[in-house]
Amino acid sequence: MAGPAGLALRPRLAALGRRLLGLSAASSGDSFLVNGSMTVEKLKDLCREDEENVNPSYLLQLYTQAVLDITYFEENKLVDEDFPEKSSLQKVKELICLLLEPEIVIKESSMHQEPLKVLGTELLECLYWRKGALLYMYCHAVKERGEWLTENGEWFKKCLNDGIHYLLKMLSFRCPIQLNEEVSFDDADTARLLSDGIFSDTHLLAMMYSGEMCYWGLKYCEEGKQESHKTNLESNSESLYCSHSAVLDFREQGEKILMTYVAVCEGPLKGQKWNTATAKQILDYFKTLPK
């Protein structure tokens, strides 16, 4: 029998199996669901093997990939349906909780290792990117729904706050490369990108998304109520998803991240068709706000 990781995974694999049964009826051989199903079945077999024959990190990496595949299908369905007003908030919460599970399993398995060590950079970045991007897409869909926003303003701001935290965390897993006499690149543009912590298009998108969400927080949430809202959020027993409780300074964080985004897009990535118009408009908006 597999060790603590296998034991922690067993009920979760059973739950994923039930989830797949329900989703498969609504899909026509979707490749992500097929891959997710194959991975779940492989994991079930591995969890039956002797502990010494199974690497727990490998089990958790497979589990993470299965979660990513299955939730990707469900996220796409939400996007295609434009996040239905009556049901999408609960569905988003559910998907975020699923995407949090790999790190929870690591803790339950008493592996005494950080998630980055167990899962690797790419998988962990993907988990945080998917959580942040899902909240970005959800907030983008609901921000213009005036009546909903009036009734659910606190949740909206919580979604923004958590989404930005997830994206910033995603950007933090790879440390910017510090250029010096011992570390140099023949390509100056590549050196600039790496020193700014940009290792892929996804990193750049994460910057733009988090900057936009900071803007929405200031534009659509009630002005002058950030402090009282902070108290409400930090004392709210029904926390949305994040383990953190800190509420961001939307303006400060937005300015910082979008200035970097614009500088990179108009510097080393000039001519690569990265649009900076929206980022510049947001930065101009920040300038109109009182200090």
TrEMBL record:
GO biological processes: mitophagy
Pfam families for the chain: RIMC1
Domain of life: Eukaryota
Signal peptide extent: none
InterPro entries: RIMC1 (IPR037657)
One cellular component term from this protein's GO annotations in UniProt: nucleoplasm
UniProt-recorded name of the protein: RAB7A interacting MON1-CCZ1 complex subunit 1
Species annotation: Crocodylus porosus
Organismal lineage: Eukaryota, Metazoa, Chordata, Craniata, Vertebrata
